[in-house]
Specification:
This protein is of the alpha/beta class and about 325 residues long. About 25% of the residues lie in helices and about 20% in strands. The strands form five sheets. Strands 1, 4, 7, 8, 10, 11, 14, 15, 17 and 18 form a ten-stranded mixed sheet that branches. A two-stranded antiparallel sheet has the order 2-3. It comes from Streptomyces nymphaeiformis.
């Protein structure tokens, strides 16, 4: 690889060389203390790496991060019922749902949630204000099956044609019989992919692009689950998630999915030349950026999370040179 190979490239090697604990990453907080000072929800993309970080990031020797998966039981209990009796809440699925749940908790002052996970940046007005703190870098490609009618190598123009349901796209067939998937509503990967494809959530919901689906039958399409695919469908897929599933660091939900090459750059070797990449974030109240334990865990290059580059790489992500930055704040 060329001299531009940086943290993204190192992630692949780290997947093979580093393990965190034994077996697959645990869902929801595991081990004592059961209830953590910093409870967070949201992104499916970053739930596993945050679970891994929750096992190693400590303040004064105590685990303080509680990361609750995007899917699982219908409800979660984020704080000790003896002291916070109203903290059994519906489980938020995705970046948008996590942000909404965090804001609801902050507005009520119930102390149930302290941060949220986000795989996309959303700096729309929020009350109280929120700060998006980057901690890693992910790439996103498209996933298809080995027998797909969609080529394994595409230019961005081809991908955009597919997601615009362009009848002139040569791989679509005479009746445009492709099923073009987006993940469930509220997914950060969904909003990120829409921005890359030049489509809007408003138009998707309005049915402007009739080939786009976010359900298979009646079941919502969960991001980074390749089992939704058949030979006439396509879906965006986090490269970090794909690599971590492939290495058995986390549960393997790929099914028959393989990742496509975009603009001649293969996603199987992560590097900074991959054109479709994004920062991933933890979202914290702006009022807490100088307050412990938020400041100890999230803020600055020497924060608890930013020091754990090996763990971040293990889960398929690249370390972020701007890890801990607090300049991205909602108005």
């Amino acid at each position: 690889m060329n001299k531009k190979k940086t943290g993204l490239a190192l992630a692949v090697a780290a997947l093979a060389a580093i393990t965190v604990g034994s077996g697959l990453a645990a869902a929801d907080p595991a081990g004592p203390p059961q209830y953590r000072q910093l409870a967070g929800v949201g992104s499916d993309t970053t739930q596993d790496v945050m679970n891994g970080l929750a096992d190693v990031v400590t303040v004064n020797g105590q685990k303080v991060l509680g990361s609750y998966d995007a899917t699982g039981s219908a409800t979660i209990t984020t704080k000790n019922p003896a002291t916070n009796p109203n903290c059994t809440i519906p489980r938020p699925n995705g970046s948008g749902a996590g942000r909404s749940a965090l804001l609801t908790s902050l507005q009520s002052g119930n102390g149930c949630l302290d941060y949220s996970r986000s795989s996309s940046l959303s700096l729309g007005a929020a009350s109280p204000g929120l700060t998006y703190v980057p901690f890693a870098i992910d790439g996103v490609s498209y996933a298809i099956t080995p027998g797909s009618s969609i080529p394994r190598k595409l230019a961005m123009a081809d991908l955009k044609a597919i997601y615009h349901c362009d009848p002139n796209y040569v791989g679509a067939g005479p009746n445009y019989d492709l099923t073009v998937y987006l993940p469930q509503a509220g997914s950060g990967t969904r909003s990120f992919w829409e921005s890359q494809m030049g489509i809007t959530e408003t138009d998707v919901v309005a049915g402007v692009y009739p080939c786009i689906k976010d359900k298979k039958g009646t079941a919502p399409v969960q991001e980074h689950d390749g089992r939704v695919l058949d030979d006439k469908s396509i879906v965006p897929f986090s490269i970090a998630q794909y690599q971590a599933q492939s290495s058995q660091t986390i549960a393997d939900l790929r099914g028959r999915a393989i990742l496509g090459t975009i603009e001649g750059v293969a996603p199987t070797v992560l590097n900074t030349g991959f054109g479709v990449k994004r920062d991933v974030y933890n979202v914290i109240p702006t009022s807490k950026v100088t307050t412990s334990p938020w400041s100890d865990v999230f803020v600055g290059p020497d924060s608890g999370i930013c020091k754990q580059s090996a763990v971040i790489n293990t889960y398929g992500f690249a370390t972020n040179p701007n890890c801990g930055d607090i300049t991205k704040q909602t108005p």
